[in-house]
Amino acid sequence: DAGITQSPRYKITETGRQVTLMCHQTWSHSYMFWYRQDLGHGLRLIYYSAAADITDKGEVPDGYVVSRSKTENFPLTLESATRSQTSVYFCASRDWDSAYEQYFGPGTRLTVT
Amino acid sequence: DAKTTQPPSMDCAEGRAANLPCNHSTISGNEYVYWYRQIHSQGPQYIIHGLKNNETNEMASLIITEDRKSSTLILPHATLRDTAVYYCIVRNYGQNFVFGPGTRLSVLP
């Protein structure tokens, strides 16, 4: 199906473990984004990418690593998960010439115990 | 990017117009006003955007004051499915979006 998907949708992991959240879009959008949303807060930008092999930090990048070897995929890795990274993670994408509309995925709910 | 101020919550009766205000008194001349909404547990969804003229689409209308220091999002006939958090964002073209806490709209039967 066309669109933007995230996997897994739910994940429980232990402190110190590495975990990777996947994001895949089928539109060949140039821009992709990772946000986190904590209870009672708006979305905060973690990392974004303007194209394959181009990534940049957002507002809260510490503790996260991203890569983008293919246009359609933008994985987010927590190298050593901490309880403070318990959150809902949203991936988004937009095309380079559509600067107003971002399309968001369904989210991944991550719990670090 | 200019900061926005929105009421934390609002109620609206089903079938009535929902008018969601947003203050952005420090907006600069080339910053647009955008509205997104987030229905419970889902990713945010684009609604509408504008620079200085009023805008309307199939979802909503956006009214921007002449001095551009505030705007109102209007949902003309609110339904229960419009219950969501609504985010007002101002930004320059091409910059990243910054989502604040938004307004939690409850549409009541």
Task: Please provide a written account of the structure.
- The complex is a heterodimer of chains A (113) and B (109).
- With 113 residues, chain A is mostly beta strands.
- Helices cover 0% and strands 50% of the residues of chain A.
- Chain A contains no helices and eleven strands.
- In chain A, strands 2, 4, 5, 6, 9, 10 and 11 form a seven-stranded mixed sheet that branches.
- In chain A, strand 9 and strand 10 form a beta hairpin.
- With 109 residues, chain B is mostly beta strands.
- Chain B is built from no helices and nine strands.
- Chain B has strands at residues 9-13, 18-23, 31-38, 45-50, 55-56, 61-64, 70-75, 84-92, 103-108.
- Classes of the chains: A mainly beta (113), B mainly beta (109).
- Chain A binds chain B through residues 33, 35, 40-45, 48, 58-59, 90, 92, 99-107, and chain B through 32, 34, 41-46, 49, 87, 93-94, 96-102.
What is the number of strand segments of chain B?
9
Total helices of chain A: the number is 0
Structural class of chain A: mainly beta
Could you describe the largest sheet of chain B, including whether it forms a barrel?
5 strands, mixed
Helix content of chain B: under 10%
Q: In terms of per-residue confidence, which ranges of chain B show pLDDT below 50 for 5 or more consecutive residues?
A: none
Percentage of residues in strands of chain B: over 45%
Shape of chain B: globular
What topology, given as strand order, has the largest sheet of chain B?
Answer: 1-9-8-3-4
What is the CA–CA distance across the termini of chain A? 33 Å
Largest interface: A-B, 22 and 19 residues
Sheet-strand content of chain A, in percent, reads over 45%
Multimerization status: heterodimer
What is the arithmetic mean of pLDDT of chain A?
Answer: 93
Would you identify the regions of chain A where 5 or more consecutive residues have pLDDT less than 50?
A: none
What count of helical segments of chain B does DSSP give? 0
The overall pLDDT of chain B, averaged over residues, is 93
